[in-house]
Amino acid sequence: MFGLNGFKEVDATAVKAIAASGAHLIDVRTADEVAHGVIDGAIHIPLHLLPLRAADIPQDRPVVIYCRSGARSAQACSFMASRGYSNMHNLSGGIMAWARSGNAISPAR
Fold it and tell me: Dihedral, CA atoms, 15, 39, 76, 11, nearest 10 degrees?
């Protein structure tokens, strides 16, 4: 169920399942942060560019947005939900929670 903000908070385990089903992963961190590693398959769209790139984000499949801790990605999810997107998922705890859960961090490309 999606929250009052129009998006769903999900943990790392849920993200793995959602990603396996063909979700779109978006990293909204800065370029410097991304240089330290990413979740494999993620597309980098810095938070400040999201309004300009929103049309590039699909509405026909789940979208997981993440940042370092989950705060900026929650803002991104809220922004997208306010634009009518009903498929937004925020990685609670961000990439730090992803790594703490034992998941791989891939080198940035």
Answer: 30
Active site residue 67: yes
Catalytic residue among 50, 67, 80, 81: 67
| 61-71 tens-digit pLDDT | 999 999 999 99
Neighbours of 20 (CB within 10 A): 8
Task: List the alpha helices (DSSP H) in the chain.
Answer: 12-20, 31-34, 50-53, 71-82, 94-100
Model pLDDT for residues 2-12, shown as the tens digit of each residue: 456 789 999 99
- For tokens 């997107």, the residue is 85
Q: How far apart (Å, rounded) are the C-alpha atoms in residues 13 and 63?
A: 15
